[in-house]
Amino acid sequence: VQLQASGGGLVQPGGSLTLSCAASGGTFSHYTMGWFRQAPGKEREFVAHISWSGDSTRYSDSVKGRFIISRDDAKNPVYLRMNSLKPEDTAVYYCAATNQLYGSTWSGAYDYWGQGTLVTVSS
């Protein structure tokens, strides 16, 4: 079972971008899905997670109010809509899955990881 993130690219400050995470070889419909990011020279950090039912979400303070996590298991396990992007949002973004019912902000709690997609916010 694999995850693959996509949708990254170059965007100007204030712009928007939507990341997708596709699953292959299985389904993640009963997993909590999360997004993490890692900027150059920094540790991987939590961005957002969404429960398997889709009715519970959590965001890091740095993206709250700007990013929206959602899921549509008929298509892709998880999406991340990023609005009002800032240069400090520049990072490689990773999708991940955990079987912890209420999710986690700790990367070690996630069992499956996709290859990252690079988001660059620059004018």
Structural class: mainly beta
**Which bin fits the share of residues in helices?**
under 10%
Mean pLDDT rating: 94
Q: Spans of 5+ residues with little confidence (pLDDT < 50)?
A: none
Which key terms come to mind for this protein?
mainly beta, globular, 11-stranded mixed β-sheet, 123 residues, 11 strands
Could you characterize what this model shows?
By secondary structure, the protein is mostly beta strands. The protein is built from no helices and 11 strands. Strands 1, 2, 3, 4, 5, 6, 7, 8, 9, 10 and 11 form an 11-stranded mixed β-sheet that branches. The model has no long low-confidence stretch (mean pLDDT 94).
Summarize the structure.
The chain has 123 residues and is an all-beta fold. 0% of the residues lie in helices and 50% in strands.
What's the topology here?
Layout: E1 2-6, E2 9-11, E3 17-24, E4 32-38, E5 45-50, E6 57-59, E7 67-72, E8 76-82, E9 91-98, E10 112-115, E11 117-121
Parallel strand pairs: 1-10, 2-11
Antiparallel strand pairs: 1-3, 3-8, 4-5, 4-9, 5-6, 7-8, 9-10, 9-11
